[in-house]
Amino acid sequence: MSAEARQSTCVAIGNRAILIEGAPGSGKSSLALALIDRGAMLVGDDSVMLEACDGWLFASPHPHTRGLLEVRNLGLVPHDCTEKVAVALVLHLDGSAPRYIEKAESIAISGVEAPLIRLAPHDAVLAIKAELALQRYGLPV
């Protein structure tokens, strides 16, 4: 199957990727930067290539933005990135995210189902919440 571009940001924690989505200005790149500071690896910022293969969704850097991370107030900063990581969780930065959830929602991307968690943007502990969401709701790879 062919790869498709998606306007998302993506980081890898170990061998599992978190696909970060949300409206422009919601903090996707800032969350990625915070997760990178905590040990994650950049896959792609603002645009990633997604490919379905054997029931998994794989994320890779977009060729036009490979190795670049937008850091607000600094611009595009070169950064190491990793290739082809299985998407284990989709985070949607959403100002109306529920306070409590009992289970993850589900989203189909390129015909592959992935767990979806909505998190309120611009939270001081957003990176920690993202890591906890991956541990609790992310697909095992």
Automatic annotation (TrEMBL):
CDD domains noted in UniProt: HprK_C (cd01918)
UniProt keywords, alphabetically: Kinase, Transferase
InterPro entries attached to this UniProt entry: Hpr_kin/Pase_C, P-loop_NTPase
Keyword Transferase recorded: yes
Signal sequence interval, chain numbering: none
Domain named HPr kinase/phosphorylase C-terminal: residues: 7-77
The keyword Transferase appears for this protein: yes
Alphabetical list of Pfam families matching this protein: Hpr_kinase_C
Gene3D superfamilies documented for this protein: P-loop containing nucleotide triphosphate hydrolases (3.40.50.300)
Domain of life per record: Bacteria
GO MF annotation list: ATP binding; phosphorelay sensor kinase activity
Record-level GO BP terms: regulation of carbohydrate metabolic process
Name this protein carries in UniProt: Serine kinase
Source species: Novosphingobium resinovorum
